[in-house]
Amino acid sequence: MSLQPLPVPTRVYHGEGVISYSQRHAARNHSNIADIERGVRQLGVRLPKTRVSPERFEVWQQLGSLHQTTFSTPASIAGSVVSDRQLCLRCTQGNRAMGRIPGVGMVCLRHKHWLGSPQIGLDGYFPALTAERHFRNHLARRGILFDSFATGRPERLCQGLEDAAILAALLDQNTDLPTAFARFAAFRQPRIKPLVRESAFIGRVVNLRPALLSAAASRATVLIPEALLTAHLATVASRSAFALPDRQ
Length: 248
Ligand SMILES: [Zn+2]
Prior knowledge:
By secondary structure, the chain is mainly α. The chain has helices at residues 18-28, 33-42, 54-63, 126-139, 154-173, 177-198, 200-206, 209-223, 230-239; strands at residues 76-77, 80-81, 85-86, 98-99, 107-108, 113-114, 120-121. The site of zinc ion has 7 residues, from loops.
């Protein structure tokens, strides 16, 4: 197969997936994915209907004059799904693009930009930047993903958000992290145990206790940079059936 690139070039962003890229590339060429792929099939190119396939990678690599390794970010690492998420809006000059960036936590260090929803600038919030560096240097290298506690089923995601809300409250009450995490562990023990049983990831981390603490510390500081998630977490908390532990 040898396809001519579309006339208007479109830069692919680091980690961007084929669906995101093909939408942007088609739109910049005043077309849409369906019409372009129909044209490609009419040229005799075999292109399955599956949204993500090696054939589709190759077609859009050629239509975009992209390197052959583009779109090759793994869909899972050590059994954990690598989430498809919105890329840093400042890295993409404001374009909405989705992709997998397993080595990155919740912060674009280049732009000091929080990658949650909504994305906002972190400016001088150094704890979040420090936590991000810690995550990248120590946890991401071991194949731990930023949402490892929350990937998979929706209830697991809710669990992760609940945990974040509880940790946020405990961190409000306890300025020192070890105390906050000790209380969190004690409070969440009944919920953590089944998670440990069912999650190979947590099982691995529990076997490396210092890593567990750093993972928790990293998640807490990365997940909860001051007030920016407060409203969101409060919403989660108000919908959830959990009660915060009493102040001590
Ligand atoms: Zn960025």
